[in-house]
Amino acid sequence: METVIRTEGRAKMEWLKNKKLTTDSLPDKWIEALLQDKKNANDPKNSVTISDWCTYTNTKAMLCNAGQKGGVYPEYTNFSPSEIKSFLGLYLLNGLSPSPQIKMKFKSQVEDPINGSDLCHMIFGKNAEKRHKHFKAFFSCQDPMLPTPPRKTHPNHKIDNFLSHVNWVQYGGMGHGKKCFL
């Protein structure tokens, strides 16, 4: 058996060094490096952050009159970046340990021993189902103020920025400002 160093299909070395990631780094460090809370000074203009997604989500809700009397979801309040991260983590958890409905994760394991999650029950609290409904309705990975491009030329327009960001991490600059090739 011959050991060969793989040079394609991985993050670029410069990015790994800047983020202080190694093969021994824990998965949460990799996710935090890929999806940062805020942009750093040396990050490309089009890099993806949780703060951007939070802004897009709250803007989309505002455009739907959420939180306004007579509007959709009058009890809506703006999401914080930590809430966005919690809901994204919830979807990761459901991918690893699927439940028939994600809202089942909000129950404690005493209430639902099979699908309940004490961690989710503690993090999301009593208003979890209603807040999850808000998240499903308004979560956005792209700026809702920008016009929707034609589907023929941009079939992945809802996640193009994220795909471009992943391409930048992997290939070092390719993908930002160019059509994504994933």
Please describe what this structure looks like.
The chain has 182 residues and is an all-alpha fold. The chain folds into two domains: 6-35 and 147-182, no CATH class; 50-145, no CATH class. It has seven helices and no strands. The protein has helices spanning 13-19, 27-34, 50-63, 81-96, 118-124, 128-138, 160-171. The longest helix is centred in the middle third of the chain and has 16 residues, at 81-96. The chain is globular. Residues 174-182 have low confidence and may be disordered.
Determine the N-to-C terminus distance.
Answer: 31 Å
Q: Report the order of strands and helices.
A: HHHHHHH
Any idea what the shape is?
A: globular
Largest sheet: none
Runs in which pLDDT lies below 50 for 5 or more consecutive residues are: 174-182
| Strand residue content | under 5%
**What share of residues is helical?**
40-55%
How many helix segments? 7
Radius of gyration, in Å, reads: 19 Å
What structural category arises from helix and sheet content?
mainly alpha
- The count of β-strands is 0
Q: Kindly give the count of domains.
A: 2
Average predicted local confidence, pLDDT: 86
